[in-house]
Design goal:
174 residues; mainly alpha; 64% helix
Length: 174
């Protein structure tokens, strides 16, 4: 309530979920645009098998509706693609050195980066590694990390494809 009193449009409390974040952003954008039904979204290229998307394209599309959202999203993608290999290497080193504490901390931090871009499968893999570390073990981490390596390739491809798409037309007002 103090956030609203201070002039914020809304706030999100922990635990943060993508659905709640997306709903909150969509509600604010709809209120600002006066159009609760016609938020335009770009779609991300889906490269993973089955119905399992590497990137939640609806979530990414919400950035486009923000003022300067495309520029922000492009910068976030750049940073993510630059830093993700190092984050994965930290996880690999923690597993190789049987360092459960570092595994938990690094997985938790990397999960946040993935959630910001709608990389839900990657975030789920991070959660699995985080839980292992919290249990004081790295056993099983190599299998999860192998899945993470494969998924990161799909995420990178999906993000690259997303950036190559033209931005959807802005919502027109009568």
């Amino acid at each position: 309530d103090r956030c609203i009193e201070a002039g914020m449009d809304d706030y999100i409390s922990k635990p943060l979920t993508l659905d709640y974040l997306a709903q909150t952003i969509a509600r604010i954008l709809a209120a600002r645009s006066g159009d609760s039904e016609n938020l335009s979204l770009r779609t991300a290229h889906t490269t993973s098998s089955g119905n399992n998307q590497s990137i939640n394209s609806d979530f990414l599309g919400l950035y486009q509706e923000m003022e300067a959202g495309d520029a922000l999203l492009d910068r976030m993608i750049d940073v993510y693609l630059q830093e993700a290999p190092s984050a994965i290497q930290i996880l690999r080193t923690a597993i190789n050195e049987d360092d459960a504490d570092t595994l938990s901390r690094a997985a938790h931090k990397f999960k946040s980066s993935n959630m910001q871009l709608g990389a839900e499968v990657m975030a789920s893999l991070c959660t699995q590694l985080d839980k292992l570390g919290q249990l004081g073990t790295t056993t099983g981490g190599r299998v999860i990390l192998s899945d993470m390596d494969d998924e990161f390739s799909r995420v990178r491809s999906a993000l690259d494809a997303y950036r190559r798409q033209p931005a959807a037309a802005s919502v027109e007002h009568a």
